[in-house]
Structure formats: structure tokens, C-alpha cells
Write a structure and sequence with these properties.
With about 240 residues, the chain is of the alpha/beta class. It contains ten helices and five strands.
């Protein structure tokens, strides 16, 4: 007998943070969608060229090809092939209007600010796949409720390992006087820490990001030390 072909809507998750990918897969795991992942913009473009997707969740700051460039490449492919535009929903820790404008210029459909909660993700997917009424922009999500934090608990070891690697990268960057890389690492941790419910750690990561933007090595080092202490505290709490 011929193999059955899945008719489930296909969603592509694009993010260089494995903990963010795991989180989104958890959110979408019980929903009637076929979910695939890409760890950078180049991989996303290659996958989009090889298969049809119904919706894309796109991170912005990624290696090899960032979210803006990947979104432009996807839109170029669609135009050349005469295909309708697939919704590209940006998931980012950036919240300023200038980033929204850059997303619009790159051809993105909507802009969701991290931390994004499960209900917000499922509602956005339903709207853009035609099940939830006309699309409209969503506000930033509130802190995760206790029930959702319990849902995330099995993923915490992955989050802790990824956060530790991110902060190690920030430390190496500061040792090399590379404040831009330290800024990127702070930004990277900020979104995932808030998504996993660690608000104080997310705030320390934000301070690291801002110090990197300002070129203030002393403040960046202090924010990094605070983030490391908060991560250790979170790990101890999980072990207890």
C-alpha cells in the first residue's frame, strides 16, 4: 500500500538557541501541526527551498544568515516562483519600533516579543492558518503562570546548559575586548531566560546587552557576574 502523506500544516521553527527550539516544540507538540526546525537563517532558506511550509517562526539574531536576510531570501523565492507569501512570524527579545520596521522591510508578517507564552503561540498559529479570525498584532506576553512553569520543568536542564554556554561565550568575548559579541550573548540569554520564567536572570542579561551596546566593559563584566550568580542560584533551586 502507498505511504500516507501528511496533510497537517507544516511549521518551520528557526532559532540558533536549542532551548528556544525545544520550548516552541513543547508548545506545539499537542497541536495538529507538523513541526520542523532550523538552527540558522541559511538552514531555514535551504529547507524552505526544498519543501512547502505553511508558517515560519523566525528569530532575528543568528549566525551565518540572520532573520532579516533569511526572510528576504524566502520572499524572493516566493516572488520568483509566483507563490503566495507564507506568514513569517518573528520571535525576538527586541521590542523597539526600529526592529519592527526592519522586520516589515524584510517582508515579515508579524512581530511577537519574547517571552511568548504557549497560548499566544497557539493563537498566532491559528490566526495565520485561517482558524482564528483576522490577523492582528499581539502585545508582549505576561510572565509565565505557575502551571506553565511546571510544563517547562523537564526542559530546564537544557536551558541551564545553554545559558552556561552563552555566559561562557560572553566571558571569552569580554576577555578579548569584544563588546559586540558580549552584547549578542546578553541578548540571546535575555529572551530564553524570560521565556523560562527566570526574570532576574533575564534582567541581568539585559544589563549585559545594554552595557555591550554602550561599550562599557566594566558594567558588562558586573552584569555577567550577576548573571552567573543568578544562574547558579536557579540551578540550585531546580536541584532542590
Amino acid at each position: 500500500m502507498p505511504t500516507a502523506v501528511s496533510t497537517l500544516p507544516r511549521i518551520l521553527l528557526v532559532d540558533d538557541n536549542v532551548d528556544n527550539l525545544m520550548l516552541m516544540q513543547l508548545y506545539l507538540g499537542d497541536a495538529p501541526y507538523q513541526v520542523e526546525v532550523a538552527s540558522n537563517g541559511r538552514e531555514a532558506v535551504d529547507k524552505f527551498a526544498a519543501a512547502a511550509y505553511d508558517l515560519v517562526f523566525m528569530d532575528l539574531e543568528m549566525p551565518i544568515l540572520d532573520g532579516y536576510e533569511a526572510s528576504r531570501a524566502i520572499r524572493d523565492m516566493e516572488r520568483r516562483a509566483g507563490r503566495p507569501a507564507v506568514p513569517i512570524l518573528v520571535l525576538t527579545a527586541h521590542a523597539l519600533d526600529e526592529f519592527r520596521q526592519r522586520c516589515d522591510e524584510a517582508g515579515c508578517t508579524d512581530f511577537l516579543t519574547k517571552p511568548v507564552r504557549k497560548n499566544a503561540v497557539l493563537e498566532a498559529v491559528a490566526r495565520y492558518l485561517g482558524d482564528g479570525g483576522p490577523p492582528r498584532r499581539r502585545p508582549a506576553a505576561a510572565p509565565a503562570p505557575d502551571g506553565e512553569l511546571e510544563l517547562l520543568r523537564p526542559l530546564l536542564p537544557i536551558f541551564f546548559a545553554t545559558a552556561a554556554a552563552t555566559l561562557d561565550g560572553a566571558r571569552q568575548a569580554l576577555d578579548a575586548d569584544d563588546l559586540e559579541t558580549a552584547r549578542r550573548q546578553g541578548h540571546k540569554l535575555k529572551g530564553s531566560a524570560l521565556s523560562y520564567g527566570f526574570e532576574h536572570l533575564g534582567q541581568a542579561a539585559l544589563e549585559l546587552e545594554r552595557a555591550g551596546e554602550d561599550g562599557d566593559a566594566d558594567k558588562a563584566a558586573a552584569a555577567l557576574d550577576r548573571a552567573l550568580a543568578l544562574l547558579a542560584e536557579a540551578r540550585r533551586g531546580f536541584a532542590d
